[in-house]
C-alpha cells in the first residue's frame, strides 16, 4: 500500500511538472535550459514530494503549491513582472479547476471535500482522484490558452500588468467566498466555470493588447527610420545643388581670374582660385564610386566622423556603379550600418580607438559591405545604446529584413571591444 501511495505521489508530481512547463511554454515561450536550472528542478522535486505525500493544512499546501510554480518559473529568461503575473494566473486557474473537479466528484461520488480526513487512506485516495481530474481539466485549459496566444516578447509598463491582475485576484477572492453558501452549490459551480472562462479570456485580451502596442511601437520606429532616410537623401540633394551652383558660377570665376591676369594681379587671381577650389572640395562628394547612395552616405559619414574625432578609412571597389538593388533598400542597409558604427565610436574614450573601416565591393553576383569599429566596452547584447533605446534598435532588424528580401544575409562578429558588421546582398 505504501509503495502504491508513493507511485501515485511521484506520478502526480511528474504530471504537474509537465503541466506547469507546458503552461509557461505557452505564455512565456520555450526555456533555454542551463546548468543553474538543475537547482530549481531539484527544489521542485523536493517540494512536489512534500506537497503530495505529507498531510498539511489548506494554507500550507497552497504555499507549497505556489513555491512549486515559482521554482519552475525561474528557469525562464523573461522579465520578473511577466513571471509574477503568470505565476499568479496559473495559481488562480488551478484553484478554479480544483473547485470544479471537487464539485464534479462531489456530485458523482457524493463526497464533501470540506470534511475530508487526510489521515484516512480512503479520503487520501479521493483527494488523489480529485487532483488527477484537476490536472486533466487543466491540460484542456492550457491547450485553449496555447491556441489563443502568440507568445509576444514585447514588454509593457508595470501598470498594465497590475491592471491585468485585477481579474485573477478578484476571481480567487470570489472562489474563497462561494463555498460558504452551500445551498446554492450548483449556481456557484456555474460561476466557477464563468471565472475560468474570464481568466482564459483575459490572457487573450492581454496578448492582443501587447500585439497592438508592439505594432504601434514598430510603426513609430519605422517612421524614425524613414525620417532618417529622408535626411540622407536631403544631404545628397543639398550636395548636388551646391555642385550645380558652383558649376553655374564657374564662367564668372574664370572671367574674374582672366581680368586679374590681364591687370597683372596675379596674387588676387591665385587667392580666388584657392577659394574656388575649397568651395568645390566642400560641395563635391569626397567619395566617387559612381553610385549615388554609396557616395552620398559615405561622404556624409566621413564628414560626421571627422567632426567627432573618428578616423575613417574606406576601401571601395564597385564592379559597376549600377547595382541591381533598390536605392531605398541600399540606403536602409548602408545608412544603418554607418550610423551604428559612428554612434558606437562616439562612445569610445581613447582617441586612438575611435576608428571605423568601411569596405564595400561588388561582383557580378552580389554586393558586399563590411564595417568595422571599436566599442567603448565589450558588447554583450545588440540592443541600442542610444539615449532612448525604446525608440531605437530597429536598425539591425531593418537590415535583416532587407537581407531576407534579396536572399542575402547579415553576420556580426563581436570580439573584445571590436565590432564587425557584414552584409551580403545578391543581385
Description:
With 427 residues, the chain is α+β, with helices and mostly antiparallel strands. It has 2 domains: 2-220, no CATH class; 287-427, Heat Shock Protein 90 (2-Layer Sandwich), CATH 3.30.565. Helix content is 66%, strand content 9%. It has helices spanning 2-28, 37-53, 58-73, 80-109, 121-148, 158-164, 166-177, 185-262, 266-283, 292-307, 327-346, 395-406; strands spanning 311-317, 355-362, 366-374, 409-415, 418-426. Strands 1-2-3-5-4 form a 5-stranded mixed sheet, covered by helices on one side. The longest helix is centred in the middle third of the chain and has 78 residues, at 185-262.
Helix-strand blueprint:
Layout: H1 2-28, H2 37-53, H3 58-73, H4 80-109, H5 121-148, H6 158-164, H7 166-177, H8 185-262, H9 266-283, H10 292-307, E1 311-317, H11 327-346, E2 355-362, E3 366-374, H12 395-406, E4 409-415, E5 418-426
- Choose one word for the global shape: elongated
Q: Helical stretch count?
A: 12
Provide the low-confidence segments as ranges.
383-393
Estimate the mean pLDDT confidence. Answer: 77
What does the radius of gyration come to?
34 Å
Query: Which strand order do you get reading across the main beta sheet?
Result: 1-2-3-5-4
Return the string of H and E elements. HHHHHHHHHHEHEEHEE
Major β-sheet profile: 5 strands, mixed
How helix-rich are the residues, as a percent range?
Answer: 55-70%
Distance between the termini: 74 Å
Strand content: 5-15%
Amino acid at each position: 500500500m505504501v509503495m502504491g501511495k508513493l507511485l501515485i505521489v511521484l506520478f502526480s508530481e511528474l504530471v504537474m511538472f509537465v503541466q506547469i512547463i507546458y503552461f509557461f511554454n505557452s505564455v512565456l515561450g520555450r526555456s533555454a535550459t542551463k546548468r543553474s536550472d538543475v537547482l530549481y528542478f531539484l527544489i521542485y522535486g523536493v517540494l512536489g514530494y512534500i506537497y503530495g505525500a505529507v498531510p498539511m493544512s489548506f494554507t500550507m499546501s497552497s504555499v507549497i503549491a505556489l513555491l512549486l510554480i515559482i521554482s519552475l518559473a525561474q528557469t525562464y529568461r523573461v522579465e520578473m513582472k511577466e513571471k509574477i503575473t503568470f505565476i499568479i494566473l496559473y495559481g488562480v486557474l488551478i484553484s478554479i479547476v480544483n473547485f470544479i473537479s471537487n464539485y464534479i466528484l462531489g456530485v458523482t461520488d457524493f463526497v464533501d471535500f470540506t470534511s475530508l480526513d487526510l489521515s484516512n487512506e480512503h479520503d487520501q485516495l479521493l483527494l488523489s482522484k480529485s487532483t488527477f481530474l484537476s490536472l486533466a481539466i487543466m491540460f484542456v485549459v492550457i491547450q485553449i490558452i496555447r491556441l489563443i496566444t502568440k507568445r509576444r516578447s514585447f514588454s509593457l509598463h508595470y501598470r498594465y500588468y497590475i491592471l491585468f491582475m485585477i481579474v485573477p485576484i478578484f476571481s480567487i477572492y470570489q472562489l474563497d467566498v462561494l463555498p460558504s453558501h452551500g445551498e446554492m452549490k450548483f449556481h456557484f459551480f456555474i460561476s466557477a466555470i464563468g471565472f475560468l472562462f474570464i481568466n482564459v479570456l483575459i490572457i487573450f485580451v492581454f496578448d492582443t493588447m501587447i500585439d497592438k502596442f508592439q505594432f504601434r511601437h514598430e510603426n513609430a520606429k519605422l517612421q524614425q527610420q524613414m525620417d532618417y532616410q529622408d535626411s540622407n537623401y536631403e544631404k545628397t540633394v543639398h550636395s548636388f545643388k551646391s555642385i550645380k551652383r558652383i558649376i553655374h558660377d564657374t564662367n564668372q570665376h574664370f572671367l574674374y581670374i582672366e581680368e586679374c591676369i590681364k591687370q597683372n594681379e596675379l596674387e588676387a587671381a591665385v587667392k580666388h582660385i584657392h577659394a574656388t577650389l575649397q568651395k568645390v572640395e566642400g560641395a563635391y562628394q569626397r567619395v566617387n564610386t559612381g553610385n549615388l547612395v554609396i557616395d552620398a552616405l559615405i561622404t556624409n559619414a566621413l564628414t560626421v566622423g571627422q567632426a567627432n574625432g573618428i578616423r575613417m578609412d574606406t576601401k571601395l571597389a564597385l564592379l559597376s556603379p549600377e547595382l541591381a538593388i533598390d536605392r531605398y533598400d541600399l540606403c536602409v542597409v548602408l545608412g544603418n550600418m554607418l550610423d551604428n558604427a559612428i554612434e558606437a565610436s562616439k562612445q569610445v574614450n581613447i582617441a586612438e580607438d575611435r576608428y571605423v573601416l568601411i569596405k564595400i565591393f561588388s561582383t557580378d553576383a552580389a554586393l558586399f559591405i563590411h564595417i568595422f569599429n571599436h566599442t567603448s566596452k565589450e558588447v554583450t547584447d545588440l540592443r541600442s545604446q542610444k539615449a532612448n533605446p525604446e525608440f531605437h534598435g530597429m536598425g539591425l532588424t531593418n537590415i535583416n529584413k532587407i537581407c531576407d528580401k534579396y536572399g542575402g544575409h547579415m553576420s556580426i562578429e563581436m570580439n573584445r571591444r571590436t565590432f564587425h558588421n557584414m552584409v551580403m546582398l545578391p543581385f
